[in-house]
Amino acid sequence: MTTNQPGDQEPLDAEIVESPESSDSPGVPAADLPEPDYSEGGVPSFDFVRDRIENRYNTSVGAQELAGIGGPETIESLDKKIADRDKAAKDKLAEIRRSMGKQ
Question: Which of 10, 83, 87, 95 has the lowest tally of Cβ within 10 angstroms?
Answer without folding.
Answer: 10
